Amino acid sequence: MIVVHHLNNSRSQRILWLLEELELPYEIKRYQRQASMLAPAELKKIHPLGKAPVIVDGERVVAESGAILEYLAERYDRNRLLTPLDKDEALECRYWLHYAEGSLMPLVVMRLIFSRMGKPPVPWLLRPIGAAFGNGVRKGFLDKQLATHRQFIEQHLTKQPWFAGQHLTLADIQMSFPIQGLSARGGLDDMPATQAWLDKISRRPAWQRAIQQGGELNLPD
Fold first, then answer.
1. Known Gene3D superfamilies for this protein (predicted)?
2. What is the span of the domain harbouring residue 129?
C-alpha cells in the first residue's frame, strides 16, 4: 500500500490527484501546517528535509513532487494514460514537469513572502518598514517577472488544450499547484485559456476525489 504523507495546503495534493487518475489504492498520513506555515517536525522522521509531499511505497521513500510523479507513472501507469508516446509530446511534458518548480514556483513563493512582510510574525514595530520593502520588491521585480510567465503560459494554452499536447499528462498534474497559486495571488482574468484549463481539470472525477481525500486548497493571497 502506498502511503502519502500529506500536508494541508501543499504540493502533495498533486500526488493524490495522480493516484486517483491511476485508480491506485493508497493511505494518507495527514499533517497540519504550524502557525509559521512550516510543516511539523514529525515529517523529518519520514524524510530529513521534513517537507511534503513524501510517499512510502514498500521499502522505498520518494520525495519531491516531480520525482514522485515520475516514479508512480513509471511503475504503475502501465497503460501509459498520462505518459506521452509521441517524442515531441514527451519532451514537452518533461519541460513543464521541471518548469513548474524550477522557474514558476520560486516566483510565486517569493511574492507570497514579500507580501507578508508587513504582517505577523514580523514584529509590529518593523511591519511598516517590512511592508514598504516587500511592496517595493513585488512591484519592482516580482510582479514584472510573473507577468512574463503569465503571458508565456497563456499563449501556450491558447495553442493546445493540455500542457504537453492533446491529452492530460504528468505536466498538467505538476502545473496544477502553481496555476492555483497564480489564481489565488492575482486571479486569472487576463488568462482565459489558463482559466479554462483550470476549470477543466477541476471537473475531472479524479481531481474531485483527490480534493475529497486531501481537503480543499486554501492558498493565501
1. 1.20.1050.10, Glutaredoxin (3.40.30.10)
2. 87-204
